[in-house]
Amino acid sequence: MPLSPFSAVSSIPAIGLNIPAKEKLFPTPLAPNPYLNSSNTYTATKSGQTYANLNALSWFNFLAFDIIGDLAFGQEFGMLARGEDIAEVRKTPESPVTYAPAIEVLNRRGEVSATLGCYPALKSYAKYLPDRFFRDGLEAVQNLAGIAVARVNQRLEAGKKGEVDRVDLLARLMEGRDENGNKLGREELTAEALTQLIAGSDTTSNTSCALLYWCLKTPAVMEKLQKELDEAIPEDVIIPEYDIVKDLP
Question: Would you give per-residue pLDDT tens digits along the chain (249 residues)?
């Protein structure tokens, strides 16, 4: 069965490494990767271990959430570093911390919200239906709101302690005022944070995964990309910094 742009597993060739072709991406034999947990295994499959099976969409999800956390709340979620989908949840700012898989929560929330949007008559008693789709989905709605509550609470506390040395999106929102000239309260800030999480996460990761898929499906594009990166990245650099590649066409 051919891979789709949103397949859970995509074949990822080596790019951007100035080392012999047979050694690109993963060495021979493959060394354990500390950033991959037991659910994200990989196996070299082709061309003398030049290729490996990697769950690319998961890593794009981790990247998207970390970027949103950094830009919006001044601190990333840490998913890339842990290689795991996990986020802090608080039902209220004072409630104890729990944890939930943010990406799974976002997906479930979207599915149940779309369904109830099509069948609004179900909304009032959906949580009583025997199908776990509705119960799990409504729980995901609450958990996603709890993630927003936790991030806003963490950001406000860090601001009070003087631990924030940059202007993020939440800081700009805190400067805003409503139609009566009053500053936005915690509930309004949480609603804005929730919007940022919904609007900027899976759209970014799905689009990035689709772009990678079509690059991989187009050999001429991959050759051009490899050549461009090889020319820009010094031979002794394995993982380039942003400054090295930011001006590439």
Answer: 333 333 333 334 333 333 333 333 333 333 444 433 333 333 344 445 556 677 889 999 999 999 888 888 878 899 998 989 999 999 988 889 999 999 999 989 999 999 999 999 999 999 899 999 999 999 999 999 999 899 888 888 887 777 777 777 888 888 877 788 888 888 888 888 888 888 878 888 999 999 988 988 888 888 898 899 989 999 888 888 888 988 888
Which H, E and C letters describe the chain, residue by residue?
CCCCCCCCCEEEECCCCCCCHHHCCCCCCCCCCCCCCCCCCCCECCHHHCEEEECHHHHHHHHHHHHHHHHHHCCCCCHHHHCCCCEEECCCCCCCCEEECHHHHHHHHHHHHHHHHHCHHHHHHHHHCCCHHHHHHHHHHHHHHHHHHHHHHHHHHHHHCCCCCCCCHHHHHHHCECCCCCECCHHHHHHHHHHHHHHHCHHHHHHHHHHHHHHHCCHHHHHHHHHHHHHHCCCCCCCCCHHHHCCCC
